[in-house]
Amino acid sequence: MRDDWAGYIPSIFPTGSAPSTLIEDYYQFEEAAQKASKARSGVHRQEIKGMRQLVLAEAVYFLHKSSHVIGASESHARNGIQTWSLSGAYHGAMFGAKAIMYLLGVATPNFEGKGILVDVWPELPKLSSRERKAGLQSPPDMQFSRIGHRVEHRHVWQLFQRVIRVSKVDLWSKEYISSLHKLDVGEFAWQRNKIHYNNREWICADLHKFIKDEAFGTASNGIANALESSRDSAEFSVVLALVILKLALQLFISLTEVSNKLAHEAKLIKNFIDDSVRHPIYTSANL
Question: How far apart are CA 274 and CA 185, in angstroms?
């Protein structure tokens, strides 16, 4: 897939800019989404010029957002604001999960208030042996699937787990992927939901007095333990965010090896992530 992206790299100017057009605002997407919504199967296949560039442009911007929000969470944690850092980390992890999915060609734009699952690199129809011998190839195609409801956070996490389960990415740590697979979908947001929606809960003892602990968020007892013991780990959301940021960054940097059109974006993102002021935990954690 990385090599396939080479012919669809968007032009982003100036560096770090938001996408000029979102997928859901693209008129050809609206036409395909309409067909998927009306199809009995809920699925419509069609090649749309420019769609892959839109997906990749949004992926890059999600990564910018993820880096910024996770960095803010790290700053809070290092300054003793541990509980609220968990809320920020969760939202940064959500941006990072979307960046990963979009980098892998899977997007979830809305159409008429409901989600459409877009796969710009779907599995293509298999050719017969006669067609293969004749040198024929399946034409490029994209798949648009009706979801039937608005995509909420839990749906994103369900899709994220599926996407990383079926994608083969040699760059990624098998331990991280295994730990993310083992999480129940409700565990991703449990700390954030506890803080936001249960007025009896404040996870760390920092509500009235900040607690500075440089080990917080570094997963000193191991990444797998911090993730798989999510209900017993106060630093869970921070570790989750750092792991997802790592996976997203690895995926994105690999794209720069097939095209230099994203070199400036990669430099900007790397400069921020490698900055110990912006990312004091990421740069010190043993990821």
Answer: 30
Rounded to a whole number of angstroms, the CA Rg of the chain reads: 20
Q: What per-residue confidence (pLDDT) applies to 100?
A: 98
Q: How many CB atoms lie within 10 A of CB 21?
A: 15
In a domain, 283, yes or no: no
User: Is 91:67 a contact under the CB 8 Å cutoff?
Assistant: no
State pLDDT tens for residues 193-219. 999 999 999 999 999 999 999 999 999
CA 263 – CA 3 distance, rounded (Å): 16
pLDDT on residue 91? 98
- Domain span at residue 171? 2-124+138-262
Residue 131: pLDDT above 60? Answer: no
CA nearest to 115, candidates 66, 154, 155: 155
Q: What is the pLDDT of residues 7-42, one digit of tens each?
A: 999 999 999 999 999 999 999 999 999 999 999 999
Q: Which of 41, 55, 89 is nearest to 204 (CA)?
A: 89
Among 207, 240, 247, 211, smallest CA distance to 223 is for 240
Domain count, the chain: 1
